[in-house]
Design goal:
Blueprint lengths: L2 H18 L16 E5 L11 E6 L3 E3 L2 H4 L1 E3 L7 E5 L2 E5 L9 E7 L2 E3 L9 E6 L7 E9 L10 E6 L5 H4 L4 E4 L5 E7 L4 E6 L15 E3 L7 E12 L5 E13 L3 E5 L9 E5 L5 E6 L8 E4 L8 E5 L5 E6 L2 H4 L4 E10 L5 E10 L5 H24 L22 E2 L4 E2 L5 E4 L4 E4 L4 E6 L5 E3 L3 E4 L6 E5 L7 E6 L4 E3 L8 E7 L6 E6 L8 E5 L5 E6 L4 E7 L2 E8 L22 E3 L4 E3 L4 E4 L37
Parallel strand pairs: 10-18, 27-36, 37-44
Antiparallel strand pairs: 1-2, 2-6, 3-8, 4-7, 5-6, 7-9, 10-13, 11-12, 11-14, 14-15, 16-17, 19-20, 20-23, 21-24, 22-23, 24-25, 26-28, 28-33, 29-35, 30-31, 30-34, 32-33, 34-36, 37-40, 38-39, 38-41, 41-42, 41-43
């Protein structure tokens, strides 16, 4: 082979190598194995231990994920332990004094992962004892939010030896765990005995309930942990989708393992004046931290407060909007007033308090007048300019500019296609000073061009003071028209309504579904809530003899919740630990309902006795379980 042929041959080989190495070289199978615990100082399950520094060794480099959230030392430590990792080693240093004859556990959950693929070492715990033996019993369960059965993540769950019901207030938990993303917990290292179980969102990290703002849960019954032999089923996979076989594995089952705790926040009433605002000259708002059972007393210090206000109060009277009726008052740039109301002291008792307020709007009244004058001059100039363009314009006798009457706008809350169970509503931006109902007309269509008057009632809504409802005998598939003549409404500040007309048609009954519910055990007076996919309440109905029926349901996907209104006040109520009072019970129908128009559904399979942690559908559960970190079966379809 001559020189030129050799060069061509070498270039050809190089091109082949380059083409062959375009893809990423296959480095062999994925590492799917978690780290392996090898040894420790002191040894795992050692007894008579006095060492407060613990060193754990693994077979590969490791790291800790979400250590503060996942690692729990039991008994709980008042001074936070120091947990560090480096290479294949984890070092734990305890700073509290070790208690005699006590089993200690450091529960890592799945915080220990290998450094490369983050394969977790699941449910890993390090255990030792300062006494002659290691306690090995455990109890487990789930913490759910009492009002909506959401799993509660990151909540402490602890135990006390039964006998002192005040221990929850007085001293730290004896042993403790923390809930995971499913609300699940396991308390390990228990000795035989009788215990009470509690959950706590520990705001000040002292492992006891000493702040009203802390969420809690408690089990009414005493538990006695025990262990029994049992068998579990393991699935052997042939590949990522095919089951090869089932294997039955004997193991020791620690019970009880089905504890359900319903967490709640106690009614904590702290009343004070949160803030006061005056965005515009003609009104001001008082915001209170909690509900009022009576109106505060407002006294004018630089004005006469007699019959000075129209007051709009929220349902709980915690937000109060004061409309100022007298122009001589709201023209003041600063209102000086005193507000006398009830506040709570440090022990929760009501005491009177009087605050002096100085309320000023964003703009001075002089500036408001300037802006109104500028607007007037601009409108007048435009009027004169447009008048000169008219053919009948007389320069010697020009038309006089008359500013338009202040208009009181009517706001409609309706649509052209109305639901038969939704009332017709209108509203205004300011309170009304007078209403002439003779200028309001409600008419029903006889044909496409003929309407006849029908009787109606016009009422102000209790909850929204500037909103009004028209009540009439609305019928499905029927067209109606609401007409308001000019000057039917007069506003508090001189505005007058213009003519208003709105037509609408009520939907057919064939556009809706009907849902009949039979709920064994619900009784009479429980509250059934129809929910949207986002969990929002569409409608609520009381039960009668464990039954209720929802009419006029628009087609779609829905969910159901049941509130056991045990005190009959029409709402869900929280618990009170000092009174041994649990929050009112809440249940979910465990399946999605897809309702279609023109169908009537009979649902009688709602079993409220099924375990609470299996009731709420995952689609409307906001606290989703954390995704599995371990990358399973990634090698199933690979060839090496």
């Amino acid at each position: 082979m001559d020189r030129s042929s050799k060069i061509i041959y070498i270039v050809f080989l190089l091109l082949l190598v380059a083409c062959a190495s375009i893809g990423t070289p296959d480095g062999g199978p994925y590492d799917e194995e978690p780290p392996v615990f090898l040894s420790s100082r002191p040894a795992m399950n050692s007894v008579n231990t006095t060492e407060k520094k613990i060193v754990l060794e693994f077979d590969e480099n490791i790291k800790l994920e979400n250590a503060f959230e996942k690692i729990v030392v039991s008994p709980p430590q008042m001074e936070m332990p120091e947990v560090k990792y480096n290479g294949k080693r984890i070092t734990i240093e305890l700073f509290d004094s070790l208690k005699p004859n006590t089993t200690y556990s450091v529960d890592f959950n799945d915080a220990v992962v290998d450094n490369n693929e983050s394969n977790p070492l699941e449910n890993f715990s390090f255990v030792f004892s300062t006494g002659e033996s290691v306690d090995t019993l455990a109890v487990s369960g789930t913490v759910l939010n009492a009002s909506d059965l959401e799993p509660v993540k990151g909540m402490l769950v602890g135990i006390y030896t039964a006998g002192d019901d005040s221990a929850f207030y007085k001293r730290p938990f004896e042993r403790v765990s923390r809930t995971d993303s499913r609300g699940r917990f396991t308390i390990k290292g228990l000795a035989p005995g009788n215990y009470r179980v509690y959950a706590l969102s520990d705001a000040n990290q002292n492992y006891r309930f000493d702040q009203k703002s802390e969420k809690i849960a408690f089990l009414e019954s005493v538990i006695s942990p025990y262990a029994t032999p049992d068998v579990r089923t393991d699935t052997i996979w042939r590949d990522s989708v095919t089951v090869d076989s089932l294997r039955y594995v004997p193991y020791i089952r620690f019970r009880p393992d089905d504890i359900i705790l319903r967490s709640f926040e106690e009614e904590f009433y702290s009343q004070y004046l949160l803030k006061s605002t005056r965005k515009e000259h003609n009104s001001f708002t008082l915001f209170f931290a909690d509900s009022n059972d009576s109106m505060p007393v407002v006294k004018g210090l630089n004005f006469d407060d007699k019959d000075a206000f129209v007051v709009e109060a929220s349902e709980k009277m915690d937000t109060l909007l004061y409309w100022i009726k007298d122009t001589t008052i709201y023209h003041k740039d600063t209102l000086e007033l005193s507000v006398t109301y009830k506040v709570t002291d440090s022990v929760g008792n009501f005491i009177p308090r009087c605050d002096t307020l100085y309320l000023a709007p964003r703009k001075s009244f002089a500036r408001v007048l300037e802006e109104e004058l500028e607007a007037y001059e601009k409108a007048k100039k435009n009027f004169q300019k447009n008048s000169r363009k008219r053919p009948d314009y007389d320069e010697n006798n020009p038309p006089e500019y008359i500013p338009p009457t202040k208009e009181l706008k009517i706001k409609s809350y309706n649509s052209g296609s109305m639901d038969v169970n939704i009332p017709y509503r209108i509203g205004f931006d300011e309170p009304l000073s007078s209403i002439d109902t003779s200028k309001i007309h409600v008419q029903k269509a006889i044909d496409d061009s003929t309407y006849v008057d029908i009787p109606f009632l016009f009422r102000r809504n209790d909850e929204k003071h500037r909103q009004y409802t028209v009540y009439a005998e609305w019928r499905p598939e029927q067209k109606y028209k609401v007409t308001v003549d000019s000057a039917a409404f007069h506003g508090l500040y001189g505005g007058t309504s213009d003519k208003f007309e709105e037509g609408m048609k009520f939907r057919s009954l064939d556009d809706y579904a009907v849902l009949n519910l039979a709920i064994p055990g619900a009784g009479t007076g429980a509250i059934v809530q129809l929910l949207k996919q986002d969990g929002a309440v569409v409608r609520s109905l009381p039960t009668k003899d464990s039954r209720c029926t929802f009419y006029f349901i628009k087609p779609g996907k829905y969910y159901l919740r049941l509130l056991m209104d045990e005190n009959g006040n029409g709402k869900w109520d929280t618990g009170d630990y000092s009174k041994g009072l649990q929050p009112e019970r809440v249940y979910y129908y465990p399946h999605e309902l897809e309702l279609r128009a023109m169908f009537e559904y009979d649902q009688d399979d709602w079993d409220i006795k099924m375990p609470l942690n299996k009731q709420k559908p995952l689609k409307i559960t906001k606290q989703k379980p954390d995704k599995e970190k371990k990358k399973r079966n990634r090698n199933a379809d690979r060839k090496f």
